[in-house]
């Protein structure tokens, strides 16, 4: 349709050839007149973005699990959003849940039986998943995965005896270390796959009754701990 400048019919028709470069100034464009439909894909490039697009936003000092961040999906050449939880699981994060507990007092040996070690003093427990009342770590909701654990026992008795250090999972032995010794300690370290609700405990087995003997207590003598591995 032909547009006219002035009063028709003596007005001059406004055609595309009448609109020369620079003839329409910024002042002639109404506020908010340019809609999204008039902006072509890829038309807004980096040089047209001001840094205050980011710097002008409210600063945050923490991020919630369901907060989102913006990433570039190279396979689709598109921008995507991702939650903090998904981002951390892909690139790293804290190795938690984690716990460390120790034997608070000496514990007398029992012979020829699986005996739970009384790790009832908690040093730390990031997810409140270690129970000092029953000396067990239980995998909390959302934290299934591969864990590394360590179990160190220091023992004292008068003559050489054979002793086995054991890790129990859900009430059954899964890992163990055995040695013949008199007065010293040893450690069991291993990896284990755990599902939500699985629990692990530390036991020892003395293969014969000593005349006298105890498991030594102390923060650096007999302890039990572990943590969840990342990206495994």
Q: Which word captures the global form?
A: rod-shaped
Total number of strands:
15
Total count of helical runs of at least 4 residues: 2
Range of helix content: under 10%
Report the uncertain regions: none
Radius of gyration: 35 Å
Q: For the residues shown, what is the average pLDDT?
A: 84
Oligomer: single chain
* CATH topology assignment of the largest domain: Jelly Rolls
**How would a crystallographer describe the biggest sheet?**
11 strands, antiparallel
By CATH reckoning, the class of the largest domain would read Mainly Beta
Q: What fraction strand?
A: 35-45%
Supply the number of structural domains.
2
Structural class, from secondary structure content? mainly beta
**Proper CATH architecture of the largest domain:** Sandwich
Give the termini separation: 67 Å
The sequence of SSEs as H and E is: EEHEEHEEEEEEEEEEE
Write the layout of secondary structure elements.
Elements: E1 3-5, E2 12-14, H1 52-55, E3 68-73, E4 78-83, H2 84-91, E5 98-102, E6 107-108, E7 114-116, E8 121-125, E9 130-131, E10 136-138, E11 145-169, E12 172-194, E13 199-206, E14 213-215, E15 223-228
